[in-house]
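User: I'm writing a short report section on ligand binding and want a predicted complex to refer to. Could you take this sequence and magnesium ion and write out the structure as tokens? A short remark afterwards would be nice.
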Amino acid sequence: MPQSDLVIRLGGEGGEGVISASDMFTAGAARAGYDIFTFRTYPAEIKGGHAWYQIRIGKGKVGSLGDAPDILVCFNQEAYEIHKDQLRDGGVLVYDPDQVKPEANGHNHKHYPVPMTAIAKQQDFMRGKNLILLGALCQLFGLEPAELEGVVRSRLARRAELLQKNLESLQIGYDFAKQNLVKDDPYYLPHIQKREGTLVMSGNEAIVAGALYAGCRFFAGYPITPASDIMEAMARELPKLGGVMLQAEDEMAAASMVVGASYGGVKAMTATSGPGYTLMAEVTGLAGMSEIPLVIVDAQRSGPSTGMPTKLEQSDLNHALFGGHGDFPRVVIAPGSVEDCFRQIVRAFNIAWKYQVPVIFLSDQSLSHRTESLQAPDLSTIPVYEREAPTAEDLAHYARYKITPSGISPMAIPGEKNGMFVSAGLEHDEYGHPDLDADNHVAMTLKRFRKLDTLRAELEQEPLPLHGDPNASLVVVGWGASEGAILEAVDRANAKGIPTVSLHLRVLNPLPENQLRPFFAGKKILVVEHNYSGQLARHLRATLGIVTVNVNKFGGLPFTAGEILARIEEEARG
Amino acid sequence: MPQSDLVIRLGGEGGEGVISASDMFTAGAARAGYDIFTFRTYPAEIKGGHAWYQIRIGKGKVGSLGDAPDILVCFNQEAYEIHKDQLRDGGVLVYDPDQVKPEANGHNHKHYPVPMTAIAKQQDFMRGKNLILLGALCQLFGLEPAELEGVVRSRLARRAELLQKNLESLQIGYDFAKQNLVKDDPYYLPHIQKREGTLVMSGNEAIVAGALYAGCRFFAGYPITPASDIMEAMARELPKLGGVMLQAEDEMAAASMVVGASYGGVKAMTATSGPGYTLMAEVTGLAGMSEIPLVIVDAQRSGPSTGMPTKLEQSDLNHALFGGHGDFPRVVIAPGSVEDCFRQIVRAFNIAWKYQVPVIFLSDQSLSHRTESLQAPDLSTIPVYEREAPTAEDLAHYARYKITPSGISPMAIPGEKNGMFVSAGLEHDEYGHPDLDADNHVAMTLKRFRKLDTLRAELEQEPLPLHGDPNASLVVVGWGASEGAILEAVDRANAKGIPTVSLHLRVLNPLPENQLRPFFAGKKILVVEHNYSGQLARHLRATLGIVTVNVNKFGGLPFTAGEILARIEEEARG
Amino acid sequence: MVEVAPAPLTMKDYRSEVKPVWCPGCGDFAVLSATYKAMARLGLRREDTVVVSGIGCSSRLPYFVKTYGMHTLHGRALPVATGLKLARPDLSVFVFGGDGDLFSIGAGHTPHGAARDIDLTVICMDNSTYGLTKGQTSPTSPLGRKTKSTPYGAVVQPLSPVLLALAFGAGWVGRAYSAKPKQLEDLIVEAYNHKGFSFLHVESPCTEFNNTYNYFDALVQDLPEDHDPTDREAAIRLALTEEKVNLGVFYRDDSRQDYRSKIDAWTANRGQPFDPVAYLQQYA
Amino acid sequence: MVEVAPAPLTMKDYRSEVKPVWCPGCGDFAVLSATYKAMARLGLRREDTVVVSGIGCSSRLPYFVKTYGMHTLHGRALPVATGLKLARPDLSVFVFGGDGDLFSIGAGHTPHGAARDIDLTVICMDNSTYGLTKGQTSPTSPLGRKTKSTPYGAVVQPLSPVLLALAFGAGWVGRAYSAKPKQLEDLIVEAYNHKGFSFLHVESPCTEFNNTYNYFDALVQDLPEDHDPTDREAAIRLALTEEKVNLGVFYRDDSRQDYRSKIDAWTANRGQPFDPVAYLQQYA
Ligand SMILES: Cc1ncc(C[n+]2csc(CCOP(=O)(O)OP(=O)(O)O)c2C)c(N)n1
Ligand SMILES: Cc1ncc(C[n+]2csc(CCOP(=O)(O)OP(=O)(O)O)c2C)c(N)n1
Ligand code: SF4
Ligand code: SF4
Ligand SMILES: [Mg+2]
Ligand SMILES: [Mg+2]
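Assistant: Sure. The structure tokens for the complex follow:
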């Protein structure tokens, strides 16, 4: 069977080139027209410690990082020890023989030593080490070195001398492999044709692009892994667009600033990760109470507390749904892929502005930094909404918090002559005046929550995001970054004759209950999550009264399709 | 039928004596040996605005504020307008005829004008106004004026001249009523015998007493209604006991200080209300992760955001259960009455110290400030636990976060020579050293949550807190301040031939699932809560897979027994 | 059609339909009234003005002013106002807060607000107590004071809002007193006219829990005539050593560029429209 | 049995089994090593010493010290240490934090820590950047600096930790530099010996994202010989006007009563046992 894709894992000391070599190889493959999907994990240490990177390169959409790697590239002995047992049977080991002493193995692994350090030393250009390796990889697995050359050229465009030396190293690595290594494995990149319009982006990059497209012109944030580069990109881009990005003194300030900007009528957002998001709960409540649009991206990482800052987890859903005192409406959205980051962040802005509610966008560490290839989105299918502004009639006797059937009250912004009002975190009447009367609180609470009902009705119009066999009695429910792995597992299950369907939810609150109830009826429901407690499963049980089978993984690494498939098979048997 | 209790409501302008007159009447009744139960509600305004106070005075335990008042005392016209429709058929209106012009009424209300302002003016002692009223009330409803005299004496012990004038006013009021009002209603206080050992306390006072009994010697807080007086009492009491109370700069600091003290081996707590509690979520996560005992009292008020600071609501349960990023164990406890505040806060400390977890104690605005009469608790039935200290064997090679079957690891405190360790909010190994390995995170997560399993097993040993007919198929589940009203409603339902049982949960997390599942099986389950969204009901549904009927009230005022009874009757019919 | 210039607004025009809820004699009345007058003198367009506050007695103020307003969270008025002013530089933005709001729970935002130098007019209504929560100590309460939270007397040295604002780098710092309403009004006008972050400290007694009128009446004085308000060092020295309570402008730096001027200077081509297709092409 | 006095501890005894994870050349190594030495000189009992930190590169320090320690939350080291020290006055409590930790997210706690004057030794490891999150601006970053979060240059004036600590009322304030390890060690010893809140500002360069060794090498100098460290006004003036970076003790007030002394003075009969029956009787 010809390979439709290749899975390559590179491991070594953080800061020693593993990540940058992997990035370049990925970029080269993408230039050549392959679809790519990457995953990276950093050490806890500030510098050093073990880092690894996995690249899946394929023809046609690859939505997950694959199962066992076909190829393992080890920069040092530690990497070898950590990963050797995961290399697939018959897989390929590429290594620096001066750093790694592989054992004889019982798995038919093919060994290719590439003495990158020694060759670099010989060339008297130690920084060429990675390029030597990359050259060898091109030769071994059939990637045109011209593509990598292109990558090197664009990265070092302004440093002619360095560029020359790098290109030489690349060539030397290529030649070394050609002359010294006897290719004796089945792993080759498939043949493809270059396509137009393919983008290679990370989740964080897609969030920034989508937010700008949705009209975001103000951003305030506070650095935190893995969300910081959203802030950094905004710092670069917003000023060009007449917008402002401000690094706040903490996350409470950042979210408060967004509320201020948003009250001023400017679309605004912040981005953070768990610890920062926890600190934003009070501001989220204020936005809910005073009906100010607020978009918060939480790029989840492994918790609780400081937890494992560089590791994947989906354990902030509970806080997104329920964090903060009191009952107030909020919307929770989670993207399933890099492309979906773009689409869903636009949706987040649309909902925040149309419904004047806080919207929590739950990304996660793997989506933040993984790169995927995707087709440039067709923007004509992605509308952008604005707030409902008061009409002249509304303004004749303007009531900011007017009680309406939809729950939505037209929102005036400063500058509007007859729209003056005080936005209030204190309970208030329709005019925004303090009012602690029992009937008023009841009416206002109902009004605020009615917005979620209106939104729910809107969401019910969308078809459920299903994949696989819609008549299957086994459904795999997931959210967030694991979409690709789940889809792949479902495809494989169906191919194996196990009828399976997946439901990958984007809007986690409110839920399209009218569709979900009949859909779930009579089905066995697996809920796949990267957390200990099964937060989405709990939400579904409480909301819909269903019974769930929880499939949880929470060590900080992503599900593989194979792991999910195994659970599907188990449940299909059981 | 002779009345077994009287319900008196007093209403008027805040700061104009309604609250203090009510307090004195309550104290007088309690001195006389009656059981009392009070409820008060303040205006939103800093000064002024409408305030009212309800006193239920009875013989034998009164656990709720009663249904419609028997007696309504109006200080001004506004009070009359607001409350007149709630006065029971045939009830009594007492009012100042210079302030209030009552309408002719169709409810057979009996009207007693007491020109308290005019008489006070005549006496040239305006401050005596309230005492005149109180004297009249004594005469009208049969409270010994000697009891009120006692109250006045103890309050003004050190101000002889004022005392004398006050006592005169009391007598004048008494005489006025005797001479001018023709008693023509059935409302009299029942005859009773003085009892020994009765205490009259508010919920906040009981929390302070219980915390001190449990060994609390450090308190840090930040003012907030309705929790401030816990802090203020601690400021008075702790220094005497060699402890410390510190007013922090905010709630994050307050909770952090408690964590610091607790790490030092000193039992510590903080108390706040919703907005402050929301800000403590990050610190709660730290306590969960680094396994430091933490007790937080959240005296809930009406939310969201600043909401209605002086009004009752039970809408912080979601945040208590789920606030904060990441999965970490926490315990949630809610007291049902003033006496229960004492018992449950001791339990909160016991659990926090035995299990090294954060414990959230959900009180609420009505419990905080209502007064109840209660028998002094039998302290021999209320044990106090301490942390599990490391043994000599443990200390030989001390592992602070040792993985044990119970999940509990012996806790060393500074000063212990061989116990040195670094407490960590970062994921860590058994020794507290940073460790971001997947297997370690899994093992540590399981260990931390195992503590809840161990606790759950302990809780399963306690009988369920049931009241009423244990075989009834209708169960009323409640939590917090509404206990008295629920018990009364259940008694009345059973008396009416509707078999009903109540389950008033104290520990809301973890739940004694093994007992609850069979108990709930086949029952109709009403969940009575002071919130919009049915937070406990949701928790029960998600945890136990049951179906609930939600009974919610969320205007800021407490349930009456009658309201709950009406829902019981409705469901029994339906 | 001939456009008729609207009649200038008077102080009454800035009064909203909501009645102040403060206790009789509360210093905050004077601040409110001076604010009305200052706004009228400044000729502020009501619809282009936003009054932002936190939570506290003092923070109720926005409800009583007929402009746009935000009653936010305890301690967060400054960051909210920062976001608003950055997003809408065309607006006039005022921040009102108590001593607790700006120097206790909001203490982390005040230094950054000042250092950032965004064009906000910040008015701290200092009553040296927590009024709304009924009289606990605040960051400006004097040593030894007995309150509900310090029954044996306060042991923490008070913070000086003026000294701190100066140390944080505020470009305009002044002090007023509720019982000197004309000066208060003048100082609000002057604070507003300063381009950049201006901080006005107002001694505004709480008649209910900390009635300090007599205390201040005896202690206030105008700043020494020879004080040079452009000399930051001198201003700090004054704030540090004052035994009397000085009123007036401690410091004023008219030469500085505020935040907005600086960011506007960054890029000549600010305000291009967003071209999503071109933007996405960088990832091709 | 004859008690043998234990041999005094040496710097090595304070080294834990955890290897520092900082980048080569990071200024924090010098702070750690000076801390070991200072502890040895002070003869601190390891089991009676607690090192508390927040989150950041610098805040990893407790793991490397063989005493008790707490690695807490970003910005909250000071309140955690405050609670610990108040509950356990017998312990020696150190606080280590970065410039972000103590002056950005923790900026609200630092003034109150200083004003309260609890006996803590606070060491701010200032690298004028956010090291752990890879190089954004921090509250002490200079104007104009280009970082990941300020690609067009920083527009916010830096805060001066020394000036702020002085303005907040800290009783001991000093500054050291990682490349002057002996002075650093001496100052840690001196800061510790001050009874009350002491604040040591350490310029501790981040070789990875903000390598300022050359910059500081050229700028540091010892405080002028004639500086009187008991003169707060002079200390503030120095901190305000410095063009060079002064090292040494800016301010020291040996005469003050710290928080503990004050509260111990309140009530003669502190430390009675709790009598629950008598306590409850007040409600009878
Ligand atoms: C997070 C939070 N904590 C506490 C409170 C309670 N609270 C309301 S106002 C206030 C302080 C009031 O003092 P100050 O800011 O000086 O204003 P003042 O009332 O004195 O004008 C407090 C503690 C709150 N609303 N929110
Ligand atoms: C609430 C929260 N927000 C953000 C972060 C991410 N974070 C970790 S350390 C840090 C700042 C580090 O700067 P600094 O305090 O100066 O320490 P340094 O690393 O420079 O020593 C940040 C923003 C966090 N851990 N928690
Ligand atoms: S409590 Fe004090 S600050 Fe608040 S309104 Fe009354 S007098 Fe003013
Ligand atoms: S990033 Fe900077 S501060 Fe952090 S360890 Fe490296 S050199 Fe030190
Ligand atoms: Mg105040
Ligand atoms: Mg730093």
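A remark for your report: Residues D 56, 98-100, 127, 129-131, 138 surround magnesium ion (ligand 6) (CB under 6 Å). The radius of gyration of chain A is 26 Å.
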